[in-house]
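[agent] plan:
  1. take the single chain provided in the ticket
  2. run structure prediction with default settings
  3. attach structure tokens to the ticket
  4. add a short note for the reviewer (M.T.)
[agent] executing step 1
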Amino acid sequence: MFYYLLIAFQAFCMFHVYKSRNDYYWYFLIFFVPLIGGLVYFILKVINKTNMNNTLNTITHIINPLKEIKDLKKKLAFKDSFQNKISLADALAEKNDFNNAIVYYEKALSGKYKNHPLTLNKVLKCYFQIKNYKKVLHYANKLNLAKSSNGSICLYAISLENCGFITEAEIQFKKTDKKYSHHTERLELSKFLVRRNKKEDAKIVLNNIIIEIENMIKSNKKKHKHIYNESKKLISEI
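[agent] step 2 finished; step 3 output follows
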């Protein structure tokens, strides 16, 4: 039992190093000196009054990853409320159990909540994850996309393309093409343009993304590193 607890504690510490972007030497200390290294890291980098509850919850989830789902199902069984359905669906979606998340999101979309925008967005994203593009269109048509996030508009555009509505897909994609923002969506736009053999248009979008990221401060460059590298790779292949 102690061995499994030690492994769980070690996994938690290494995950915390990654999530907090702490120095790389902590990985080696925690891995090669698991108990002492983990305790030192936990005391110096984890424990404080504001995040103790989050830390304990994280450890619990590592040891028993299904506990949260079981607890939320019990809570829903006790009180069949909109918020309890959403909480359970959110937890399932976070664990990439999109099919079951959809079940509870759709149960929540009833009565006075049948057109609840945030929930419609969530179920739309789940259907996109399982590549049910027709369902994405179904829920997108219930939303005011002008007030939705650019991420949802992008998913809608990709789904339109996959369902054969190419002209409308391009219209939706181009709504995200705003300089100095929406870099992920604009990268998807450039990929769409390449697929439509509009390579010069794609190069313009990609060049703008690359220049904007190069002119960012260091922390933002790091945040957008994946987008930058993918943009550079794609433009070199066109």
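[agent] step 4 note for reviewer: The longest helix spans residues 2-20.
[agent] ticket updated
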